[in-house]
Automatic annotation (TrEMBL):
<protein>
    <submittedName>
        <fullName>Exopolyphosphatase</fullName>
    </submittedName>
</protein>
<dbReference type="GO" id="GO:0016462">
    <property type="term" value="F:pyrophosphatase activity"/>
</dbReference>
<dbReference type="Pfam" id="PF02541">
    <property type="entry name" value="Ppx-GppA"/>
</dbReference>
<dbReference type="InterPro" id="IPR043129">
    <property type="entry name" value="ATPase_NBD"/>
</dbReference>
<feature type="domain" description="Ppx/GppA phosphatase N-terminal">
    <location>
        <begin position="41"/>
        <end position="291"/>
    </location>
</feature>
<dbReference type="InterPro" id="IPR050273">
    <property type="entry name" value="GppA/Ppx_hydrolase"/>
</dbReference>
<dbReference type="InterPro" id="IPR003695">
    <property type="entry name" value="Ppx_GppA_N"/>
</dbReference>
Amino acid sequence: MLNIEKYGAVDIGSNAIRLLVVSVIEQEGKDTLFKKTSLVRVPIRLGAEVFLEGKISDNSANRMVDAMTAFRLLMKTHNINRFRACATSAMREASNGREIAEIIEKRSGLTINIIDGNDEAAIIASTDLKNLIQDDKVFLYVDVGGGSTEFTVFANGHIVASRSFKLGTVRLINDRVDESMWNDVEEWIKNVTKNFHKVSLIGSGGNINSIYKSSGKKIGKPLSFFYLSSYYEYIKSFTYEERITELDMNPDRADVVVPATRIYLSAMKWSKAKNVFVPKIGLSDGIVRSLYNEKIAAEIEVQ
């Protein structure tokens, strides 16, 4: 007998706001299935103004209210059983971030949890990677966002190190990242991977998903360092406008894809990884998994 519930997760990032709807299918005697039902993405790009001006504008705040109201109606239509919204770099750094969160709650009815970088990394790391992470291999998980990048090292099937850095694509295109930040990331990656003989990357985020899709690779097959390096030089040879018109990229992807690729390539270089796997998971997936784990924990307490 199956027990099916729908979960909703909203990721309010520096580049876009996303609603992920997942069907959680419980089977007696078998592993629970997490089937993605719907994904809606709205490119509001909060980080562009927060990292420059330090606050969220009235116009962006109104767009957020509209988006969250629409998400609430969509979740009602989907008959969502459990839901959580998490905001990352842009809202936690905005001087009026909590004020805007309160306004959104009053007008849309949805509560926003503003999480810090370590919480973000922990939620992402809670995603189900067991089909990819083998006990005898080492992986550096890299989730590139608009405001920050989360790094997690898996070895022997367990997390051995995790850290969030203010190195994000929207920050980079707005020249809000000092060279010292790159040095800090390089030092951290080299330090946490130095004792491992062979490391592979796991990449998540909209940019690496887009790159993977354009590569034509079969699901489960990794991208090589050589391929990603060639892709980086290729897209850099086009202007922003040409990436939109000639490479058919969305306007909100055409500018951030270049710095995102640089981050992945740098992580591969510093960890000496030759391949990057792209399982298409991220913060939204981690939110759903966290909600499910909380449900299971509550059921155990009741028994």
